[in-house]
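Um, can you check?
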Amino acid sequence: MNLVKSAPRTTTKSSMKRKVILALLVLTALFAILAWQFLYSGTAAKPLAITVPEQASEFNHSHALFTQVLRDSVDNERVNYAAIKSDPGDLRAYLGLLAVIDEPTFDAWNKDERLAYLINLYNASTIALVVQKYPLESIKDIGTVVKGPWDQEVVHLDH
């Protein structure tokens, strides 16, 4: 059996100095990112106010109001957020209609009606989020490096 002892590793002052400098650079970069997040994520505009009716009458499962919002603001498969921002009344009204649906009403709907409600709530809320932050290049510009657009608390459901 051939046993060879290796010489103990010694850390030179220059390699230790490099490690300390590298660690300081990493910490500085992390601090800069966190500071940027704190300072510049606060560019929040006011949330899009919604118009909530006093009481929910029979809910229109055709989602006609949202369909109208989309007809008025979508051209060549692109949403004109500037147009919605300049006149958000129909979007506000639609979100208000969605907001007054209580759990027993929701539970009484069939599966397709509940799914359509949730999908349209998601889409209308996403449009409202973009309109709130508009102008921007992409929805990915919303939020922070740590908490992107899909991590924002936009809708709270008690269902």
Notes: Helices lie at 13-40, 64-73, 81-86, 89-99, 103-108, 111-133. The chain has two domains: 13-42, 64-151. Residues 26-45 have pLDDT under 50 and may be disordered. Residues 64-151 form one domain.
